[in-house]
Amino acid sequence: MATRKKTPEAPPRPGSRAAIAASPVLQQYQSAVQLVQQGKYEKALAALEKLLPNAPIELAERCRMYIATCRKQLDQGGLKFQNPGEQYDYAISQLNAGFFEEAATELKAIISSHPSADYAYYGLAILDSITGRAQDCLDHLAQAIEINPKNRLQARSDNDFQSMVDDPRFTELLYPEVVEG
């Protein structure tokens, strides 16, 4: 009986999720994020800046957000944002890193200077959902939808609202046509 030789598995396609997951780039990114979470901003900043030029597009955006986070933490006088979008990116990086109070502060600052910034209300709704504040989540999401009705569609498929899925008020907010009809 002849035994068949196993053909070696082909390496994952460059840029594919499998390639990214198997790459040292992802490991370096995860190490850098750990440094941010530990408050080692100088080391994290150096690691992220070194990683950024070779990072796949999926990681590059996250690297930029964490770089902004590190720079703000290292800047004694506080980071001055060029525009509300940059401030929002920073707030979301804080949210992703688990710095909920900092994220809330930045999102509220955007709203105080730009009351029609629907994305900031949406960000607060996500923060409220993640931290278990259902009524605040509903209030902020309703405000985001009132300013920009497209937020209703986005929220329907946003996994960050997972904790709200079983709340009938959330369903009514996202699917008013079912309630009215």
Give the helices and strands, then pairings.
Elements: H1 17-22, H2 24-37, H3 41-51, H4 57-74, H5 84-96, H6 100-113, H7 118-130, H8 134-147, H9 150-156, H10 168-174, H11 176-180
Can you describe what's shown?
This protein is mainly α. The chain folds into two domains: 16-80; 82-181, Serine Threonine Protein Phosphatase 5, Tetratricopeptide repeat. Helices cover 67% and strands 0% of the residues. The chain contains eleven helices and no strands. The protein has helices at 17-22, 24-37, 41-51, 57-74, 84-96, 100-113, 118-130, 134-147, 150-156, 168-174, 176-180. α5 (84-96) packs parallel to α7 (118-130). The longest helix is centred in the middle third of the chain and has 18 residues, at 57-74. The radius of gyration is 21 Å and the shape is elongated. The protein starts with 16 loop residues before the first helix and ends with a helix.
Structure keywords:
181 residues, mainly alpha, Serine Threonine Protein Phosphatase 5, Tetratricopeptide repeat, 2 domains, 11 helices, 67% helix, elongated
Summarize the structure.
The protein has eleven helices and no strands. The chain has 181 residues and is an all-alpha fold.
